[in-house]
């Protein structure tokens, strides 16, 4: 049983290597990048490169054949999004429905800075300007005018 | 009342609203980009036969296109409801996804057949073009062959009554 699995794995590895052999190095690089940035919808937090789901295998095969057919990265991406929507892209496009997604973190940062600013300003203004301080200031001023 | 005391309360209300919205949202329900578009083209064959079957044959009347498989547990869950819909006269076209004819026909013989027509998508190519990522998935098509709704997961009375029946009634009338 274990030997059987090992042999099967070996065959799969050789087969995969044989498939890769038809890529030029540049195509292989594009393939790796594309399958790394496409989400597997069955197991949502994996890319199709990492997933063992049959659907991921189908999509990898699609990417492979389309690269070999000379399609551009954008053509392949739009092939997938036409079927599965922007959700499959780990790097979603910047458009009205995703504005909040892209700008949200910056909005939160701006909000946090504003709130922090208001607090700090109020703190400093509320700081007690007690007598000792005034004494000290007067002395400094006296020294200056002398 | 100073705003400083009001602020935590406001933040709490905000979080409650966010969670109320976010937790009701099932991340598995991915909106299909195919809604409002014509049914993607396919050339399949009828289950157990060699007769070709294409998306052209989906036009002419509103119907359901149900992707299923004999190996799929969720399909068995929704199966009684599909039988019920068939009894009510709803036309359901089945697409047997990544399955063998033998297994599929045995499954239907055992549980009953709710489908008017069944096409075999043995390779899963049609499934890919339709954006199927987990059977069962059900598409609602109008008489022009336009996809008007997609239901992911087992279909039930609730989804039928609230989402699908109104669409079909509108399309037929």
TrEMBL record, chain A:
GO terms for cellular component: plasma membrane. It comes from the Bacteria. Residues 10-129 form the CcmH/CycL/Ccl2/NrfF N-terminal domain. Residues 1-16 form the signal peptide. Keywords: Cytochrome c-type biogenesis, Heme, Iron, Membrane, Metal-binding, Signal, Transmembrane, Transmembrane helix. InterPro entries: C-type_cytochrome_biogenesis (IPR051263), CcmH/CycL/Ccl2/NrfF_N (IPR005616), CcmH/CycL/NrfF/Ccl2_sf (IPR038297). The chain crosses the membrane at residues 99-120. One of its GO terms (biological process) is cytochrome complex assembly. It holds the Pfam family CcmH. GO terms for molecular function: metal ion binding. Possible subunit of a heme lyase. Belongs to the CcmH/CycL/Ccl2/NrfF family. This is Cytochrome c-type biogenesis protein. It comes from Fontimonas thermophila. The lineage of its organism: Bacteria, Pseudomonadati, Pseudomonadota, Gammaproteobacteria, Nevskiales.
Automatic annotation (TrEMBL), chain B:
Keywords: Cytochrome c-type biogenesis, Disulfide bond, Redox-active center. It is a single-pass membrane protein. Residues 33-169 form the Thioredoxin domain. GO terms for biological process: cytochrome complex assembly. CDD domains: TlpA_like_DsbE (cd03010). It is found in: Cell inner membrane. It comes from the Bacteria. The keyword Iron does not apply. InterPro entries: Periplasmic_diS_OxRdtase_DsbE (IPR004799), Redoxin (IPR013740), Thioredoxin-like_sf (IPR036249), Thioredoxin_domain (IPR013766), Thioredoxin_ResA/DsbE_sf (IPR050553). Signal peptide: none annotated. Its main location: membrane. Pfam families: Redoxin (PF08534). Belongs to the thioredoxin family. DsbE subfamily. This is Cytochrome c biogenesis protein CcmG, thiol:disulfide interchange protein DsbE. It comes from Fontimonas thermophila.
